[in-house]
Amino acid sequence: MLLAQHPRARFWLGTVSFAESSVFPIPPDAMLVPMALARPDQAWRLAAICTVTSVLGGILGYAIGYFLFEAIAQPILTAYGHADALARFEDWFQRWGAAVILIKGLTPIPYKIVTIAAGAAKMDFAVFLATSLVTRAARFFLLAALIRRYGPAVRDFIEKRLMLVTTTAAVMIVLGFLALRYV
C-alpha cells in the first residue's frame, strides 16, 4: 500500500505485477486498486502496465518451469504449498487445453503456479503467450472498469468479492468457448 503512494508508484506497480507472475506472493491488485481510485483517469494506463508486466513476468515463470523445474520451480511450488500443482495442471491441460490458462489467469489463484506449470508441462509457448495476454488483460481491465464506473464504493466490493467477480468472468469465458465449439 505504501508503494501505491510512492512517486515512482507506476514503476513499483509494474515490478510487483512482473514478480507476482513468477515468484512473488502478493498480487498487483493491492496496488492497482488504490492507485486507480486515487486517479480514475489513469485506471486504463495502470491496467495496461499490470497486463504487460504480468505477461512479461509470466514468460519468466514459464522459463523457470521449462528450464529449471526441478532446481527452482519445484521448491517454489512446494514453499507455497502447491507441490502437486504440476500434475493437476497437466491433467487439466490435457482435458481443456488453453482454456485452463484463460480461466486460471482471471482468478486470484496465484498466477505463478500457472506460468511455472505451463513451462514444466512444455505447453506451446505461442498459445501460452496469447492466452496469458487475454486473461491478464481481462482481469486488470475488469478491475479498472469497475473502479472507473463505481469509484470508491467498489473498493470494499472488490476486496471482499474479487473471487466472485473473476469467477463470473471465467464462467463467461468458458460459456463463450462452449458456444463457439458447439454452435
Question: Can you walk through the features of this model?
Answer:
α3 (29-38) packs antiparallel against α4 (43-79) and α8 crosses α9. The protein has helices at 2-5, 9-20, 29-38, 43-79, 85-96, 99-106, 111-120, 125-150, 153-182. The mean pLDDT is 81. The longest helix is centred in the middle third of the chain and has 37 residues, at 43-79. By secondary structure, it is mainly α. The chain crosses the membrane at residues 46-69, 125-150, 162-182. Keywords: Membrane, Transmembrane, Transmembrane helix. This is DedA family protein. It holds the Pfam family VTT_dom. Residues 43-147 form the VTT domain.
Rg: 16 Å
> What shape does the CA trace take?
globular
Strand portion = under 5%
Which residue ranges are poorly predicted, with pLDDT under 50 across at least 5 consecutive positions?
none
> What's the helix-strand series?
HHHHHHHHH
Question: What is the makeup of the main sheet?
Answer: none
Class of secondary structure makeup: mainly alpha
- Count the DSSP helices: 9
Distance between the termini: 46 Å
- Share of helix among residues? over 70%
The count of β-strands is: 0
Mean pLDDT: 81
